[in-house]
Amino acid sequence: MTEDKINILVVDDLPENLLVMDSVLKELGQNVITARSGPEALRRVLENSFAVILLDVNMPNMDGYETAALIRQRKKSSHTPIIFITAYADEVHTVQGYTLGAVDFILSPVVPEILRTKVQVFVDLFRMTQQVQRQAEEQVALAREQAARSAAEENVQRLNFLAEASNILGSSLDLGATLRGLLGLVVPRRGDLGIITLSAEQGHIRHTELRGSIQSPAHARGPSRDRKSCTPTLRLPCSASSRRASRNISRRSARNRATPIGISSPRPKN
To answer: Is 212:235 a contact under the CB 8 Å cutoff?
Structure first.
């Protein structure tokens, strides 16, 4: 796969210097963009992202230091590497350049091999940074896709559950069979224990259906053909269960109204 060319910005007010820099850097096989003044360089920075900026210090009107300061003020280019091209090697200019965010100085006239080597380093860094950003964006997109898929699957399961419950409610006129069907829908898919209680007038318990899924100790030790989970179903008439059930189930004042299905020990989703 062919890699995209990386942008390199060269800023100098002299056309002959730009021509020399362009010819030297063309051997890197990247996209060399030139600017002849500080304001033009700022426009270029707004339009493109650069791996490195080669900036001449001695320019009329807006010199290289002022241009670098303005480049650093823009969020998009605040971390773009800047290499100053200068004929001065004194300590004062060097300190000033590094204070403004320069990463290096190159004396003019430039040595082509040194220039290409230094620029190539920043081109490689820029390319690696782009790769890391793309990978991060792909991971974020994948995480969002997985979250959306999980939400959709959960919604489908909820709709299927409601459809099955509606089918059970409308399939039989036998109250006990209907309640047992609802409990069979809940246990063991939604939880280990389900209880439905019908209360009569004044809060007296009229009917209770309980269904639990209990795993035998033998099954817990390991899989076996002879080891099966035990799913007891208990039906308690009002006369036998009212006292015991009233300890754990709140009384209901509405007449002939079923309390919500109680579920304990929910199982984690796969």
So the answer is: no
Which of these, 154, 70, 240, lies nearest to 53 by C-alpha position? 70
**Distance between start and end Cα atoms, the chain:** 40
Q: pLDDT tens string for the chain (270 positions)?
A: 567 899 999 999 999 999 999 999 999 999 999 999 999 999 999 999 999 999 999 899 899 999 999 999 988 888 999 999 988 767 777 777 888 878 898 888 889 999 999 999 999 999 999 999 889 989 999 999 999 998 998 888 888 888 888 888 888 777 778 888 888 877 777 777 778 777 776 667 766 777 776 554 444 444 444 444 444 444 444 444 444 444 443 443 334 344 444 444 445 554
Name residue 52's beta-bridge partners.
8
Token code pair at residue 225: 């053909």
**Spatial distance between the Cα atoms of 69 and 72, rounded to a whole number of angstroms:** 5
Q: How far apart are CA 142 and CA 241, in angstroms?
A: 53
Please list, in sequence order, all residues whose beta carbon lies within 8 angstroms of the beta carbon of residue 74, skipping any fewer than 6 positions away. Answer: 42, 45, 46
User: What residue ranges define each of the domains in the chain, with the CATH number in brackets?
Assistant: 7-135 (3.40.50.2300), 174-220+227-264 (no CATH)
Burial of 163 from C-beta contacts in 10 A (0-12 / 13-18 / 19+): exposed
